[in-house]
Write a structure and sequence with these properties.
heterodimer; A: Nucleotidyltransferase, domain 5; 5-stranded mixed beta sheet; 11 helices; B: 5-stranded mixed beta sheet; about 30% helix
Chain lengths: ~350, ~230
């Protein structure tokens, strides 16, 4: 079966045509990053407006690049949660219209389940990966940071092991970049500056050091950076800036890897997935590879384009339900929260 | 020509089937913030009553506002999806224009069409009796709208259109003529469909006319590091 996937949950308008065995026939992404950059973050109303402007052309481009018409498509999958409600609505309404007009089944997909589908996608007729299940996943992006045990690619088979109590890791990168006047999005800029810095010069402490907890927190680290700037002054385009970026990024990755490896140890699985936009971070990729190799773990880090938001992951996650004959039809409803299990409460305190 | 039309810019959501100028079927709801949930049911009802198969639709249309930002997108995105699926044109029709067109030709005077823009404002546009734009849509504070109308139209005969015109009537000035009808009080898909039949799709895209800018403040950014290349 060929599935059309549509994704508009945040600042990427995306559509893809994917075969139910995971082969990606087309994958079109229109990024809004430059639209939001002057504001230092995603502006929901601007995002919704841009999605409506681009969603139909992006879907048409995905069909054209796949070289298929809608008559060859067997179902439509669309992100319906979590995300910005106004942005999600654009994709859901467009998908509803397409599915209704062609009499096709329609399924709503949880965006986080989509990210967890990354290891099952194949671009350019590459051979499929050996079955990765079960695995522990670190899902780390601008909107989400959580650890999951994944036994199957369905919501009931995904268990949260721990998550951030406050900011997502990518959000922390953006906020620190904003403090330093580095522009948006912060991740790639901080990553590049950190490579030229010494992580040992600025004394920042790693968040959530307690070994018995798999929960994460990044807002305190951001505050440490703000205090350091208050005390020492805003660094110019110099050595101090690079050392600070290296220290901040180093502590974020220390925390992510410590919790990830502890989760893997507890769950006793041999396969690890790192997905989401922050998985494009070079230091995270390199250190995770080294740590997994030392422990004999199989690490899957998808290519950057498969880590950031895309329609292919939504199409594949939806295809499992479509192939099983499911159809949400008119019942697809937008929700700002995930349907995956959540154990971590927001906010501070001991637990 | 068979036109399937949507109008979701106001608190009321409507779906209509129009064929060669005649309204074959229409359905509406006025549940608050329920456009996305209610449209599928209204759509099925309209199609069943019209007795149309999906493939028989020649054109899809939707109201383009001004109105609720999210409401507009719910109708327009659905219309775009259906048009894409069927491979037929998708046309956008001004929502205030649709209200003006609901006033019969025999009623004289410039049509001053109003909808509630919230935040103490009205969306207002003025059309002549033949439907041509006299003043394009704008958001005006309720207290200034009457003076604006007087300045724009002088002593010309005027007919007020839209339930939101009730907000103007609170003023002390002499009453203006007020045309009231189900299809004129709020924008209605039946009229959107009738107008869409006569419009050139390329010139009237199914895109919103927001009138208002998005609320967004630009922070002071000192950008130290220039935009990244592939480095």
């Amino acid at each position: 079966m060929l599935v059309l996937g549509i994704e508009t949950s945040c600042d990427e308008t995306a559509a893809a045509v994917v075969r139910s065995d995971g082969l990606v026939l087309s994958d079109v992404v229109h990024s809004q990053v430059s639209l939001h950059a002057p504001y230092g973050g995603v502006v929901p109303e601007l995002a919704s407006r841009d999605h409506l402007r681009n969603a139909a052309p992006v879907v048409q481009a995905a069909l054209d690049r796949a070289g298929v018409g809608l008559d060859a498509v067997g179902g439509v999958a669309v992100t319906c949660r979590p995300g910005l409600s106004g942005a999600l609505l654009v994709g859901v309404q467009l998908a509803r219209g397409i599915a209704w007009s062609r009499g096709l089944p329609l399924v709503g997909v949880d965006h986080l389940l989509g990210h967890l589908a990354a290891p099952f996608l194949r671009w350019d007729d590459a051979p499929p990966l050996a079955d990765p299940l079960p695995f522990v996943a670190l899902l780390v992006s601008g909107g989400h940071t959580a650890l999951y045990r994944v036994d199957a690619l369905e919501a009931a088979q995904v268990h949260e092991l721990g998550a951030t109590r406050d900011d997502a890791a990518g959000e922390a990168f953006d906020k620190v970049a904003k403090l330093l006047g580095l522009g948006y999005p912060g991740g790639p800029i901080v990553d590049r500056l950190a490579r030229e810095g010494d992580p040992a010069v600025v004394p920042l402490t790693r968040p959530m050091r307690a070994r018995d907890s798999l929960e994460l927190s990044f807002s305190g680290l951001k505050t440490q950076v703000a205090r350091w700037i208050e005390a020492d002054g805003l660094p110019g385009d110099d050595r101090r800036l690079r050392d600070l970026c290296a220290a901040f990024q180093g502590r974020v990755i220390d925390a992510l890897l410590a919790k990830l490896l502890e989760a893997v140890r507890r769950e006793g699985v041999r396969t690890v997935l790192i997905a989401g936009g922050v998985a494009a971070n070079r230091e995270l990729r390199a250190r995770a590879a080294a740590a997994c190799e030392r422990r004999g773990l199989r690490l899957i880090v998808p290519a950057p384009r498969a880590c950031t938001d895309n329609g292919a992951m939504i199409a594949y996650a939806g295809s499992l339900r479509l192939v099983a004959g499911e159809d949400d039809g008119a019942a697809v409803a937008v929700n700002p929260r995930t349907c995956l299990e959540r154990r971590t409460r927001k906010g501070g305190g001991r637990r | 020509m068979r036109v399937l039309a949507f109008e979701t810019s106001s608190r009321r959501g409507t779906v209509a089937a129009v064929e060669d100028g005649r309204v074959i079927a229409s359905r509406s709801h006025d549940a608050i913030d329920q456009h996305a949930e209610r449209l599928p049911g209204l759509l099925e009802g309209v199609l069943a009553e019209a007795g149309w198969k999906r493939g028989a639709i020649d054109r899809v249309a939707a109201g383009r506002g001004p109105g609720s930002f999210t409401g507009l997108r719910i109708g327009l995105a659905l219309a775009q999806g259906i048009a894409l699926g069927l491979g037929v044109p998708c046309v956008g029709v001004g929502s205030l224009r649709a209200m003006a067109a609901a006033v019969p030709a025999g009623v004289g005077g410039a049509r001053v069409c109003c909808t509630d823009a919230r935040r103490g404002e009205l969306f207002v546009a003025v059309y002549d009796a033949l439907g041509a734009v006299r003043w394009p849509a704008a958001a005006l504070p309720v207290g200034e709208a009457r003076a604006w109308i007087a300045r724009a139209l002088g002593a010309e005969p005027v007919v007020l259109v839209g339930e939101a015109a009730a907000l103007l009537e609170r003023d002390a000035a002499p009453p203006l003529g007020w045309f009231q009808d189900e299809r004129a009080d709020l924008p209605h898909a039946a009229v959107v469909g009738q107008l869409a039949e006569r419009l050139e799709p390329g010139e009237h895209p199914a895109e919103p006319e927001y009138v208002r800018e998005a609320d967004a403040r630009r922070p002071e950014l000192r950008v130290l590091v220039p935009a990244l290349g592939d480095g």
